[in-house]
């Protein structure tokens, strides 16, 4: 009984700690204009009407709003990393949670299989931050002067990626890793570096890629094939 109570107390303490870290993360993004894309609209909120036709400025506001528009349970859906990429994510953004419209924030529950890397990518103009919930994850980002900042993060460790910088995550543990991340935009764009270079349509000419990477056409075609699958 004593052992059970000890483990139960430890689990509760760990859970509270993780939630506290994530809460601090959200508060930071919301209250710091340098990190958030929040544009201080004149109205208190604008729940997006996804049934309407969007304009150049986005979706119009719903005319009838209820409490349900400000709550979302989709992040808790079980994740399955048994796919070719080895990565799975639940997304809370404008298109899945319309209540985030104009709020300048989105959240993601991400699972990464052991030994798998999330390709180098960026979110133009916006900050990303998060916390590792389970596993060991090597997280790194590159600055514009080609400096790499990286570290292996474990459960409870928080990280931040400065606006628009190329970054990656790799599960370096022996079990599945999970992260909770927040991006300072309700509908952030994502630029996957290798896919942008090798899967662009129309394609970047082979002679350009061969010159840039100082390699041959066979290697370029091999990379295109692997990235396409």
TrEMBL record:
Residues that hold oxalate according to the record: 118, 123, 128
UniProt keyword Disulfide bond present: yes
InterPro entries: Cupin_1 (IPR006045), Germin (IPR001929), RmlC-like_jellyroll (IPR014710), RmlC_Cupin_sf (IPR011051)
One Gene Ontology CC term in the entry: apoplast
Residue ranges of the TM segments: 15-35
SUPFAM superfamilies xrefs: RmlC-like cupins (SSF51182)
Domain Cupin type-1: 73-221
Gene3D superfamilies membership: Jelly Rolls (2.60.120.10)
S-S bonds: 46-61
A Pfam family reported for this protein in Swiss-Prot or TrEMBL: Cupin_1
Keywords: Apoplast, Disulfide bond, Glycoprotein, Manganese, Membrane, Metal-binding, Secreted, Signal, Transmembrane, Transmembrane helix
List of residues binding Mn(2+): 121, 123, 128, 167
Any one GO molecular-function label of the UniProt entry: manganese ion binding
Chief subcellular location: secreted
Subcellular location: Secreted, Extracellular space, Apoplast
Recorded family membership: Belongs to the germin family.
Protein name: Germin-like protein
Organism this protein belongs to: Brassica oleracea var. oleracea
Lineage: Eukaryota, Viridiplantae, Streptophyta, Embryophyta, Tracheophyta
């Amino acid at each position: 009984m004593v052992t059970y109570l000890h483990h139960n107390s430890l689990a509760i303490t760990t859970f509270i700690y993780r939630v506290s870290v994530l809460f601090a993360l959200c508060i930071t993004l919301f209250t710091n204009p340098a990190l958030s894309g929040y544009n201080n609209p004149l109205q208190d909120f604008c729940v997006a009407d996804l049934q309407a036709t969007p304009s150049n400025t986005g979706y119009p506001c719903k005319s009838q709003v209820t409490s349900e528009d400000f709550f979302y349970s989709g992040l808790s859906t079980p994740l399955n990393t048994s796919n070719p990429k080895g990565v799975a994510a639940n997304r809370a953004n404008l298109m899945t949670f319309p209540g985030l419209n104009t709020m300048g924030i989105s959240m993601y529950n991400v699972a990464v299989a052991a030994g798998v890397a999330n390709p180098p990518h960026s979110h133009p103009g916006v900050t990303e931050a998060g916390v590792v919930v389970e596993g060991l994850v090597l997280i790194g980002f590159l600055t514009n002067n080609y400096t790499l900042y990286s570290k292996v993060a474990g459960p409870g460790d928080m990280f931040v990626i400065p606006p628009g910088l190329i970054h990656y995550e790799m599960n370096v543990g022996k079990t599945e890793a999970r992260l909770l991340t927040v991006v300072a935009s309700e509908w952030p764009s994502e630029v996957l570096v290798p896919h942008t270079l090798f899967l662009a349509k129309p394609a970047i000419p082979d002679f350009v890629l061969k010159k840039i990477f100082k390699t041959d056409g066979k290697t370029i075609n091999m990379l295109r094939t692997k990235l396409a699958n």
